[in-house]
Each structure stands twice: as structure tokens, then as C-alpha cells.
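Quick one: C-alpha cells for this chain, please?
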Amino acid sequence: MLKMKRALVLFVICVFNLAAWFGANGAPQLVDGIAVIVNDKVITYNDVQRLVGPSLDVLSRQYGNNTELLREKLAEVQRSAIEQLVERELILHEFKEKGYNLPESIIEDEVQRRIRENYGDRSRLIKTLQSKGRTYEDYRKGVREDIIIDSLRRKHISSEIIISPQKIENYYQENKDKFEVGDQVNLRIIVLGRDAGSDDVSRALAEEIVEKARGGSSFQMLASVYSEGSQKSQGGSWGWVERSVLRSDLAEVAFELEPGQVSNVIETPDAFYIMKVEDIMEAHVRPLSEVRDQIEQTLKDTERARLEDQWIERLKEKSFIRYF
């Protein structure tokens, strides 16, 4: 029975692909085609296109000047999308084969929650769907499938993954280079914009601010009053920054200052800058106590991905999959 079912699917695919390649006038034109079949589900290149669509503009902007690299990136994104769709169908098929049930009330509650959070009301959702050639039924079906996939993932991949202290220690010792921190300064900056008609006034004000700061006035207060920079409300504070965070002309000055020292007025084409270094921290490796939680989360994510890969492989082993 299974062989007959697969043969029927392959026959439909052949007809579908022929129709895709030949239009009404018999001229060759690829309208759509089969990307892969998973059991009795056909995944088309239109399905793939819908998934990768948002990535295409980004890739075109990033690699548009390099046709070969753009082609490689597009192929890479397409392969990834196909695998995502395959995994999705494998999980949905498992749900169906196991005879699981999903109450309609759960689906409806999730649909309404998503409408409230993402669209505000149903009418706005409908308009958005129509602009994309989709229906409300398509949307509801997608929500149902999302719930099924999320539920089975949680069923087969425990969220309670325990990472031993020894594993965390081993990871830290083997990857210390990942926790290296360059020289840093705890920095405050006052920014005064330049204007062709008031350059002299701005320069004079900047010099006055430097004099006040060096005379004992609070740099934080001066920044809150005079600065035009984005950190004005924080008293000009940039917190701890590495050299790479600053533009080169500012970094050169900042990393020459001593703790508590106020710079001279730094004149650039766009603004006048005044900096104060609150403290200095030399390059070092962050201690384990500081990165323990980060390492634990990394190891949990790695283990969760490994368990999911194993589960998907088991589903593949008992499924019919054919790529085109």
C-alpha cells in the first residue's frame, strides 16, 4: 500500500513538473517546480520562495556588487529553507501518524493572541493576508502547525538540560580566547555640533566647558547641560568601551588619558568633542565567575541542537524523502 501511495505521488510530481515547464502555448517556462517530497507532502519552489523572500532584499543589498558571491549566498539560503520545510513536514507527519489530537480551543486562543499582538484586529490581518495572496484559513492552518511543531519539539527535546560545573570549567579552559577583553576606558563625552555660522561660538563654549571641568565642575552635570550627544541624559556616559568602539581620532585621545583626566577640545569635521576618562581597565581574560552563566547557556543551546538533530534524523530514517 505504501509503495502504491509513493508511486502515485511520483506520478503527480511528473505531471506537475511538466505543467510547470510548459505554459499554455507549449513554450518552456519555469513557473514553479518540485523542490522535495516528504512522505505524501509535496514542497514546491514557491513554498521555498515564500520562506526565503524576506532574506532576498538583504542579500541583494549586501552582495549585489559580487554576482558570484550573491549566487552562492542565495543557494545557501535556499538549501537552508528547504531543510527547514523538510523538518517541518517530518514533525507534522509524526503528529498525524501517532494519532495525536489538538483541541480547536487551543488553536483559536493562539490565533486571537497573535492577532492582538501583531495586527491589533482581524480586519487588519485580513488586509495583510490579501496583499500576500493568502487567506484567513491559510493563517489559521499555519498557527495550528506551529503549535504542533512546538509541542512535539518540547516533548522530544527536554528544556531541563543540566550542564555540570565540570563541563562549564572545561569549556572555559578550552575557549579562553573567546573571553579576552581589550584595553577599556570608562568614558564620558560631551559633543557640540558644528555650524558654519556659529563655529567660533561653539569652539569658545567647548573651551569654557574644558576650563570648568578642570576647575572642579562635575563633568556629568556639564554633559547633561551642554552636550548634544545621544548620551546627554546619562551625563555623557559611554560606560566601559574598547578602542574599536570609538572612531580612530577619538580613540587615539581617549586611550592616552589618565583616570580623572579631561581632554582638550577635539575638533573634527562634524563636531567638537570633550572627553573624560573615569577609569582604565587593561586587557584581560574575563574570569569564570563572570561568564559562567553565559557558558552554561551556550552549552545548553548546543546540547539542545544536538538532541534535535538526533530526533530529526530518526524521523528521516522512517520517512520517504526525495529531493529534486
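The two ends are 24 Å apart (CA to CA).
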